[in-house]
Amino acid sequence: MDLVNASVRPLSAPPPSAPDPLPAKPDRGRLSADAWVDAALDLIAEQGVAALGVEPLARRLGVTKGSFYWHFESRDALLEAALKRWETREMEGLIREADRIADPRERLVDLFRRTSREMRTHVIYSALLKALDHPAVRPVMQRLSQRRIQYLALAFRALGLSRRDAINRARLSYAAYVGFLQLILQLRLQRIDPADYDAYVEHVVETLIPPLLA
Amino acid sequence: MDLVNASVRPLSAPPPSAPDPLPAKPDRGRLSADAWVDAALDLIAEQGVAALGVEPLARRLGVTKGSFYWHFESRDALLEAALKRWETREMEGLIREADRIADPRERLVDLFRRTSREMRTHVIYSALLKALDHPAVRPVMQRLSQRRIQYLALAFRALGLSRRDAINRARLSYAAYVGFLQLILQLRLQRIDPADYDAYVEHVVETLIPPLLA
DNA sequence: CCCTGTCAATACGGTAGCGTATGGATCTCG
DNA sequence: CGAGATCCATACGCTACCGTATTGACAGGG
Fold first, then answer.
1. Contacts of B178 in chain A (CB under 8 A)
2. What's the CA gap between B80 and B72, in Å, rounded?
3. Which domains are assigned to chain A?
4. Residue A190: its chain B contacts at CB < 8 A?
5. Which of A37, A116, A176, B86 could form a disulfide with B176 if both were Cys (CB 3.0 to 4.6 A apart)?
6. B200 in A contact zone (CB under 8 Å)
């Protein structure tokens, strides 16, 4: 499954915290704060931040808001909890990423290709992109985007680009990423068939990643 | 004023339709449907589609919704009218654009540079990007974006790129445009100073526009 | 066995917005 | 000047949601 023609579905098993074949299942159908956060992220992925409401979410989970307000102060508290969880996971991903491949060019190419094939992350990122008005969302996105652009700049630097060029190339690449997300995920600009899509990704790679002539 | 560090303000003189020094001003403070549409576009530019409501807009104009519902069926009718007006103007702009410059490379470079310096259009486009869920917004954006990408593809073709490369370069360029809009206008990724900004634009030009070697 | 902590349902009050109905004001034109 | 058209205000009902308060269900530990 790649970025194009992808559908969005819950895909949250009761997070990593519940390995239950049977053992540690305290109640039937009772919810933890974590479960609410997971559900919130699912809802955001599917319908965007604006659709995240406590009553709608409660209905979706088959309970009433009486439950919700036991776990959280307010709707915004839930949003912030969800953002927090998401941000730390994304940041961890970035770090894990750090030096998987030695050759600097191959590292970048691999990053581009992998990015084009993952999904869940981008769906949420894209949804959050549409909610940048919200005061809780913007700082999270600013931090993450900054970090990723810095990472890209470093990678381009390692390819022999000047400091200035590396930064600008990083900005350009990231802008292309963000824009493509919106075009595909939100605008649904036309469902490109997979072969075409691969060709596009390769074109991007060749256009944006210089040939390591340092 | 360029894309960076730009503030968003009404800037709608009572549209082009009212050239009044004094002559054709029928009433004092009475509103036409056009005036509502203009105000709607202003509001969208400032606060996004989600903020477009009839009561808020009425307050803003110093009247009550009693007035609004005389001119329009519903909130959505207003949105559609605003989208219609905006779309036709944008399309006209695209056409007017068509062949202002003979040399195909210079035409593209000029387009990129001019795009980086205009404002109003992009603000609304960017606001609409965040409202692509709305069934009235998406088709408009699909048409416009398609047209612009086609235009770009033609331009790149004229530079000697293969049909496939031209299309992919057009997609990439447009994605970079869309992404940069979100990054700057919505995320406010850090206010780049003008010199830096110009350098970025030149970097984009050099990276995305090949040297006409056909 | 019951007591306490945990999670959930119900009921309530409050806000903000949509759309309708109806009457008032003002302008135009015959 | 009066009649119709045009624009606006007011008042109303309705919906969807937030947040609070109160009570209920139920588990596990003493």
1. 175, 178-179, 182-183
2. 10
3. 8-82 (1.10.10.60), 98-214 (no CATH)
4. 146
5. A176
6. yes
